């Protein structure tokens, strides 16, 4: 674990993650939040259709 060098330099906002990048800059990223409920999808009405008529297939004659 690292040492705390200075406090209260960056004004922190709730919902953001703060980290030090490779160049030594302090960066903020919005935290991903899971578990949010999705809106219910509207069900489409099902329309019953008649089955398609099948065409008669002619058989080939063998020689």
Characteristics of this structure?
63 residues; mainly beta; two-stranded antiparallel sheet; 2 strands
Q: How would you characterize this protein structure?
A:
This protein is mostly beta strands and 63 residues long. The chain has a domain at 1-31. It has no helices and 2 strands. A two-stranded antiparallel sheet has the order 1-2. A hairpin with a 5-residue loop joins β1 (16-20) and β2 (26-30). The N and C termini lie far apart (87 Å). The relative contact order is 0.15.
Question: Strands, helices and their partners?
Answer:
Elements: E1 16-20, E2 26-30
For the CA atoms, what is the radius of gyration? 32 Å
Computed structural class: mainly beta
Number of strands: 2
> How many strands, what sense, and barrel or not for the largest sheet?
2 strands, antiparallel
| Secondary-structure element string | EE
Instruction: State the helicity in percent bands.
Output: under 10%
Poorly predicted segments:
none
* Largest sheet, spatial ordering of strands: 1-2
Shape: elongated
The helix tally amounts to: 0
Report the average pLDDT across residues.
Answer: 79
Taking the alpha carbons of the first and last residues, their distance comes to 87 Å
């Amino acid at each position: 674990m690292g040492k705390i060098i200075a406090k209260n330099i960056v004004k922190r906002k709730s919902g953001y993650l703060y980290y030090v990048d490779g160049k030594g800059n302090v960066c903020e990223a919005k935290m991903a939040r899971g578990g949010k409920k999705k809106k219910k999808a509207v069900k489409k009405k099902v329309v019953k259709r008649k089955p398609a008529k099948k065409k008669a297939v002619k058989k080939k004659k063998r020689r």
